[in-house]
Description:
Elements: H1 8-13, E1 20-25, E2 31-36, E3 39-41, E4 46-52, H2 56-63, E5 68-76, E6 79-90, H3 93-106, E7 117-130
Antiparallel strand pairs: 1-2, 1-5, 3-4, 4-7, 5-6, 6-7
Amino acid sequence: MAEITLSSANIEFVTERHLASLTIVTSSGRPHVTPVGFTWDEKENLIRIITWAGSTKAKILDRSPDPLRAAVCQVDGGRWITFEGNATVTADPKRCQEGTSRYAKRYSPPKDRGEDRRVIEIRVDRILGRNT
């Protein structure tokens, strides 16, 4: 997999404290849209979103036998960036810890969800944006 390289302005933008919209295209084709905090892992081309087992977004992804298409869009005035890719959800403790650690660094330490912790991972294959 080739790395997707962001400009220095976009790297700065996705490390500032902003929320975003997560859109998951469900298996029925209906979009599910919700506000989220997220982190970008450029080395892995991966967006991580922490959540919990009972959230609608986690349930949608958990019910699907295959990854679902998703997009994360962050907006600040005229600046915006959208990451698109296939989304999955996991309860794997190492992956949840990685997502939680990255979230704490960008935002603040999240509530301890214990065994309910989940992380949504979006394998990014397309980025759109405007950074003014």
